[in-house]
Design brief:
alpha/beta; TIM Barrel; two-stranded antiparallel ribbon; 10 helices; about 40% helix
Length: about 300
């Protein structure tokens, strides 16, 4: 029988903007509350970004993370995962600031560079709460998210070697699986590997079930018994792909970073609502949901007592 499903929740991210949903957490208080509620609903891992409390723009400052990370860890036992993706357009150093300062159990890592296009969302809104929002979206028409092999080496050695942080390896395309295999071949990271397969982002693998099945097949060949796999899909594909992952024996991610909706045309009222919905689906399939303790065991994490927040 498959092991319990590890549900990751990404409450705010660095892609959607405040105009798009009144439920998107922006302030440290909102991010903390959304995270704790998601954990109570069944999320074992919380994947975190920070935002400027006044404008909602993605913000890399460690002092912002320190305003919500301690609150989360004090209120629940969920694994805290700090993004190294930051916000689109940030430098590598900016993207790493929070993770280096807080030394979390987990950090995300995009395993390669890619065109990362969110500019099509411009067409959906006629007015904006903040001037930065349309400029931010339009910028991605001519933007490459950069994680070269040199970047990947630096990040896994800095966070993995110096801090004992383990990674949510975000693979947006087939080549990213091979990039991860190359990192493993260098001896820079040790199993188990947590592979997050990402679908539906313009510039990466499309949200097509054949792509999910093929990436899973290749991951099995590359990593064998040394990895845990999880799936996230952007927008309307979120719940169907999360369900497919559960059906295939994998893990999954939901949250307002990946989709603002909980059903066709219906904004999700909270991150916890998305977690509760997918948990209900998972349990209806006869699978159970992993606790944070189970996630820590399976992902070989260092423990919440060895972080810097």
């Amino acid at each position: 029988m498959p092991e319990p499903v590890i549900i990751t929740c990404a409450p705010t991210g660095g892609i959607h903007t405040p105009t798009m949903s009144p439920h998107l957490p922006v302030t440290p208080e909102e991010i903390a509350q959304a995270s704790v509620e998601a954990a109570e609903a069944g999320a074992a891992v919380i994947h975190l970004h920070a935002r400027d409390p006044q404008t909602g723009r993605p913000d890399p400052r460690p002092e912002l993370f320190q305003q919500f990370l301690p609150r989360i860890s004090a209120a629940c036992d969920a694994v805290v995962n700090v993004s190294t993706g930051g916000g689109l357009g940030m430098s590598r150093e900016e993207r790493l600031r929070a993770a280096v300062a807080t030394s979390p159990e987990m950090a995300s890592l995009n395993v390669g560079s890619l065109n990362f296009g969110i500019f099509p969302m411009l067409e959906r809104y006629e007015s904006w709460k903040h001037d930065w929002e349309p400029e931010f979206l339009e910028m991605t028409r001519d933007f490459v998210f950069k994680n070269t092999f040199a970047d990947l080496e630096y990040i896994v050695k800095e966070l993995g070697g110096s801090h004992g942080t383990r990674f949510e390896f975000e693979c947006y395309d087939l080549g990213h699986l091979y990039n991860l295999a190359w990192l493993i071949d260098q001896g820079w990271i040790e199993p188990p590997f947590f592979v997050q397969m990402v679908f539906g982002v313009l510039g990466g693998a499309g949200a097509d079930l054949d792509n999910l099945v093929h990436m899973h097949t290749i991951a099995e060949k590359l990593f064998g018994d040394d990895y845990e796999w999880s799936v996230l899909a952007a927008g309307r594909h979120q719940m169907p792909f999360a369900t497919q992952a559960a059906m295939l024996g994998g893990n999954l991610r939901v949250g307002l970073e990946d989709s603002l909706f909980i059903g066709p045309g219906e904004l999700a009222p909270s991150n916890a609502a998305q977690v509760a919905k997918i948990r209900s689906i998972v349990e209806s399939l006869g699978r159970t949901v992993a606790t944070p303790a189970e996630a820590r065991r399976r992902l070989a994490l260092k423990g919440a007592d060895r972080v810097a927040f």
